Amino acid sequence: MDTQESQPKLYGSVLIKAKEIMDYLLMQPKSPTLAELSRGLNSSKSTTLKILKTMEHLGFVRREEETKRYVLGTQLIPYATKAISSFDIANVAQPYLEKLRDETGETINLGIPVNQRIVLVSKLESSNSIRLQSTIGGSMNMYSSAMGKAVLATYSADQLKRFLDTTDLRPVTQNTITNQNELRHDLKLIQEVGVAVDNEENEPEAFCLGAVLKKDTQLYGAFSISTPKYRMTPERRAGFIRMLLNTQHEIQEAI
C-alpha cells in the first residue's frame, strides 16, 4: 500500500507546530524558556517566538515576566472541561473491546468507578462464553473485582486509606480478599504487573483479568476479560495478559 495515499493530507502547518508546543509544555516538569523550547522542538527561535506570540494573544500560553518562561494558558481550561464532560469512554473503547472479545472468545467488560464501586457500562459477550451474573448498569465491589482492583492500584496512599476506612471488606465468595494487609499486597502486585486478577473472588467459577484506562492523570475506567475458571490454563492466561495490555495501550492512544 502506498504510504502517502494512506496518510490524510493535513493543512495548517502552524497549527501542527502550535500543538507540538503545547505538548512540550504539558510534558515538561519545569516551564521552559524560549531557547529551551526552540531546542526541544528542533525549531528556530524566530519561528518558535512568532507562534508563541500568537498563542499568547489567544490565551493558549502565558509568558512569565520575571522568569521569561512559558506555561500553558488558562484559556485552555474551559476547552479541557468541556472535552472531559462530553467524553464517552464506551464509544472510544468499543472497537478495541470488540476486537479483544473476538481474539479471546470470552466476555469483555468495561466499567467506571462510581461511589467506591465499579459500575458496568458495557459488556461484550462471545458465543463461546458462559453467562455471568453482571449486567450493564449494575455495580460490583472494588476490592473483589478485577476492574475494581485495577482502579484501586492507581490510588495514592491517602486515597487507599480513605477507601479502606470507609469500606467493609465483606466476602462475596470464599475466595474474596477480606483482609486489608492481603489486599494491599495484592494491589502492589497489580502495580508491578499492570494487570489485576479476580480468581473466583467476585463470582464462583469465574476468572477475570483487568486493567485500567488512564491517560496523564485522568482515570477513565477499567476493562476486563472474564472466562470460566476451567478454561483459564496457564498458556491462555499468559496470552490473555498480552492481549489485555495491548488493548489497554491501543485505547489509551485513542483517548
UniProtKB/TrEMBL annotation:
Pfam families on file: HTH_IclR (PF09339), IclR_C (PF01614)
Naturally occurring in which organism (per UniProt): Schleiferilactobacillus perolens DSM 12744
SUPFAM superfamilies per the UniProt record, alphabetical: GAF domain-like, Winged helix' DNA-binding domain
UniProt name for this protein: IclR family transcriptional regulator
Domain of life (superkingdom): Bacteria
Keyword Transcription regulation: yes
Keyword set, alphabetical order: DNA-binding, Transcription, Transcription regulation
GO MF, one annotated term: DNA-binding transcription factor activity
CDD domains reported in the protein's UniProt record: HTH_ARSR (cd00090)
Domain IclR-ED: 75-255
Ranges where the HTH iclR-type domain occurs: 12-74
GO biological process, one term: negative regulation of DNA-templated transcription
InterPro entries cross-referenced by the UniProt entry: ArsR-like_HTH, GAF-like_dom_sf, HTH_MetabolicPath_Reg, Tscrpt_reg_IclR_C, Tscrpt_reg_IclR_N, WH-like_DNA-bd_sf, WH_DNA-bd_sf
Signal peptide: none
